[in-house]
Design brief:
Elements lengths: L24 E2 L3 E8 L18 H4 L7 E8 L6 E8 L4 H4 L4 E4 L2 E4 L4 H10 L1 E10 L2 E4 L7 E3 L4 E5 L18 E3 L4 E6 L5 E5 L17 H7 L8 H4 L18 E4 L9 E3 L11 E4 L4 E7 L3 E3 L1 E9 L5 H4 L6 E8 L4 E6 L16 H6 L1 H8 L4 E2 L1 E7 L4 E6 L21 E7 L8 E9 L25 E6 L5 E5 L4 H4 L4 E5 L9 E6 L5 E7 L5 E7 L36 E7 L7
Parallel strand pairs: 10-15
Antiparallel strand pairs: 1-30, 2-33, 3-4, 4-7, 5-6, 7-8, 7-9, 10-11, 12-13, 13-14, 14-15, 16-17, 17-19, 18-22, 19-20, 20-21, 21-26, 23-24, 24-25, 25-26, 27-28, 28-29, 29-30, 31-32, 32-33
The chain binds MU-OXO-diiron (FEO) and calcium ion (3 copies).
Pfam families: PhoX
Protein name: PhoX family phosphatase
InterPro entries: PhoX, TAT_signal
Length: about 600
């Protein structure tokens, strides 16, 4: 149902009706076209996707699973040609592999993992770099693009910055502590001002198995990160994921990874200066003096909001001069005070409690155990920090706090106990300068259904029944400074709606008004959005569609919406449901919103 124009709103599109079904839905007057699906070719010579005959070799040449972060890097300054960079966060075996789910006596079982299956999963992780081009108003992949690339859980990477070579980073396969294979659980990410692709390693704990040797020095470190969680079978076939066999391997994950997409043979770099935790993403912008500021969320209940400020300045005239900016700078963690101010506390070895007395012998120790260092500094435990997007024009940044049902004590920055729907904090850096070390903050929105008083949602009264949302996760500030929020966790059972992409007014009389622009098929989570600089396209990522529904061979899975399922986006009996990146454009062309 179209929404009447809201006084002062930056948006005028007709709102989508919230709800749930097998398909995706975009605002009237717009097209939502499938651009890339799991299994699609990334190279001209890649094999066609054959879900019943998958292999590691094929998957290494095809688009990976569970697309999360999407970035667009224009080529030669063009509006209609660029590189799409996409994270493949994780794999859902029960949705990927035919016939592995069985039901006996009402109990669901997934068949024992095999090495071949694990290797396909590893190849379906990581990221994709692919050239895309707009032809007659529609985007399409360029399969012979010279810069096309797949990055996987086995791609050789370099360890850079202060933790490089440290004894805690060394393994049998890499006694130098400088080289690691692969990146995993890349949730959101970023694109730097110099056009590199940032992948954030988030829930790395699930990939590790086994037990540390008795009395091992990493015991506390791994406990703080939830390692091992044992969600994947990788450790049964690859010793490095078994901490009994390779106790230091988890220290080589949980970092920010930088990829120079202009050289497809470049070695991706793990930038240890930005700390080790469950990195949600790394959106960046320039400070007033040309240093570069990265906002970093640690997605765990009661964990922290961080930022990193480079020591060097961005040089717009010399791309090569920027390529190692991420190796030197200051990592800060936020303390949100009750009076509406905040302070960025520096995580610098030798300062305050970050000394040998507390087990930090060097900056490498501070970074490897970033969370413990932040604990000691007195940072404010938050309700699961996800994306944080800065707006360099205003010196503000928007912090998505997705939820925290375990919170028992409220504080000003986390004002609700049992916070099921999350909230958004707007911070204002002192002097409007993103490199400031303090500032003020306010709550932009407490999320959830405003018609249920106990929820305590604070959407404006102009927000319709379709316009509210819970569980903010990713977000974008478009080139007009407008905020878009995508969600993770709105379920038919709890909210009668799927996840989607909402447009949120942050300025003037309409501040706090939200409206639904796009929603995903049942079972999916919304990732992205990535608006192109000219605002004529929004790329969005539909992640794990059909999860919790029926697998594609018709076997059931424990589910909160058992009676619903989807074969999006192909709707073919011989095709599984597939995660996909979608390009949204306005019919007839023009600016989105
Ligand atoms: Fe992978 Fe924090 O969401
Ligand atoms: Ca996700
Ligand atoms: Ca996320
Ligand atoms: Ca999330």
């Amino acid at each position: 149902r179209a929404q009447d124009a809201v006084e002062g709103s930056a948006f005028s599109f007709p709102e989508v009706e919230a709800g749930v079904d097998a398909d995706h839905h975009v605002a009237q007057g717009y097209d939502a076209d499938i651009l890339l699906r799991w299994g699609d070719k990334v190279f001209a010579d890649a094999p066609d996707f054959d879900p019943k005959n998958q292999s590691e070799a094929a998957q290494e040449r095809q688009f990976g699973y569970n697309n999360d972060f999407v970035g667009f890097i224009p080529l030669d300054g063009a509006d209609d040609r660029g590189l799409l960079v996409v994270n493949h966060e994780y794999t859902n075996e029960h949705l990927m592999f035919p016939g592995i789910v069985t039901v006996e006596d009402g109990k669901i079982a997934v068949a024992e993992a095999t090495e071949a299956r694990v290797d396909i999963e590893m190849a379906a992780h990581g990221g994709t770099v692919i050239e895309i081009r707009k032809v007659d108003g529609k985007w399409q992949p360029v399969l012979d693009g010279a810069l096309n690339r797949r990055i996987t859980a086995k791609t050789p990477m370099e360890i850079c910055g202060p933790a490089t070579g440290h004894a805690r980073m060394q393994t049998a396969a890499d006694p130098t502590g400088t080289r690691v294979l692969g990146t995993i659980n890349n949730c959101a990410g970023g694109v730097t001002p110099w056009g590199t692709y940032i992948m954030a390693e988030e829930n790395i704990h699930g990939y590790f198995t086994g037990a540390l040797p008795e009395g091992h020095r990493e015991a506390e470190n791994y406990k703080r990160m939830g390692i091992p969680e044992d969600s994947y079978a990788w450790g049964r076939f690859h010793d490095r994921f078994d901490i009994g066999k390779e106790p230091n391997e988890p220290n080589r994950f949980g970092w920010i990874v930088e990829v120079d997409v202009m050289d497809p043979t470049s070695t991706p770099r793990k930038r240890t200066a930005l700390g080790r935790f469950k990195h949600e993403g790394a959106a960046s912008a320039l400070a007033k003096d040309g240093r570069v500021v990265f906002y970093l969320g640690d997605d765990e209940r009661f964990d922290y909001v961080y930022k990193f400020v480079t020591a060097g300045r961005y040089n717009p005239d010399d791309r090569a001069a920027n390529l190692d900016l991420l190796d030197e700078g200051t990592l800060y963690v936020a303390r949100f005070d009750e009076d509406g101010s905040f302070v960025w506390l520096p995580l610098v070895h030798g300062q305050g409690p970050l000394t040998a007395e507390n087990g930090f012998e060097s900056q490498a120790d501070v970074l490897i155990e970033t969370r413990r260092a932040a604990d000691l500094l007195g940072a404010t435990p938050m309700d699961r920090p996800e994306d944080i997007e800065p707006n360099a024009e205003t010196g503000r940044a928007y912090v998505m706090l997705t939820n925290n049902t375990k919170r028992e004590e409220a504080n000003a920055a986390n004002p609700r106990v049992e916070n099921a729907f999350g909230h958004i904090i707007e911070i204002l850096e002192d002097g409007g300068d993103l490199a400031a070390t303090q500032g003020t903050w306010e709550i932009l929105l407490q999320c959830g259904d405003p018609s249920v008083a106990e929820v305590g949602a604070t959407f404006s009264t102009a927000t319709t029944a379709n316009g509210w949302f819970g569980m903010p996760d990713n977000c974008a500030i478009d080139s007009d400074g407008r905020l878009w929020v995508s969600t993770d966790g709105n379920s038919p059972k709890d909210t009668g709606r799927t996840d989607g992409l909402w447009a949120v007014d942050v300025e003037g009389a309409a501040r706090g008004t939200s409206r639904l622009f796009y929603r995903v098929p049942v079972g999916a989570e919304m990732c992205g959005p990535c608006p192109t600089p000219d605002l004529t396209t929004f790329f969005v990522a539909v992640q794990h569609p059909g999860d919790g529904g029926e697998d594609w061979e018709g076997h059931g899975r424990p589910s909160y919406y058992e009676d619903l399922s989807t074969r999006w986006p192909d709707f073919r009996d011989d095709m599984p449901v597939r995660p996909a990146v979608v390009a949204i454009t306005k019919q007839g062309g023009g600016r989105i919103g």
